[in-house]
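hey so u asked for the seq, here:
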Amino acid sequence: MFQEIYSVILFAALSVLVLFILTKIMGYRQMSQMSLFDYINGITIGSIAAELATNLEDYHRPLTAMIIYGLLATFFSWLGQKSMCLRRFLTGKPLVLLHHGVIYEQNLRKAKIDINEFLVQCRISGYFDVSKIQTAILEGNGRISFLPISSEHPVTPADLKLQVPSEDMTATLIVDGKILEHNLAHSGKNKKWLTSQLSSLGYPDPKEVLLATCDLNNKLCVFAKNRNQHSEDVLD
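ran it, structure tokens below
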């Protein structure tokens, strides 16, 4: 009797330890802002951990399965960083639900969201009047991002009775050193223009760029790769 209780405590502690190690390896995304793939993987590993804590006779199988699932999740996460197509397949592609007063019903249906649920999400984010929203985008993790119209930003120009130009979304041209050809063409630009702009900003090679965006005024915003720099270095 006491031997069985001792074994349950031991294996429960072991399962928690393994879960902690796997979470550290897979990244903190498992705890918040999970994609569909992360969510499914997290549930599966949790179920195996529960079996490990209670299976006193054959604990090798669930322990091995937990490690394999953790390593596979880490491997697919690494692949997703290398392949944009695979990343979009695993995490999902952002969908524009509302833009400039137009609600895209087809994208709502594709996201399995009805108009009432969309309005609930608007209210949760503080938008009780949909006309105050310029753009709403469903992200790959299932959350909806909202861009308010220019006159409704904090410290509103409307309060000062100022006329401001309407804001629009920026085009993402480079992600992790890779030029997004489709976005570049859609924004009316080409590689020659992009490389010229990058060179003038001190980036002769696009592979040195982590993120580059361009707005409607052709203003290029560039973020360089800084893999050797930690957040602690910035705070020092």
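Strands lie at 95-99, 102-103, 133-138, 144-148, 171-175, 178-179, 209-214, 220-224. Residues 28-32, 230-236 have pLDDT under 50 and may be disordered.
lmk if thats what u needed
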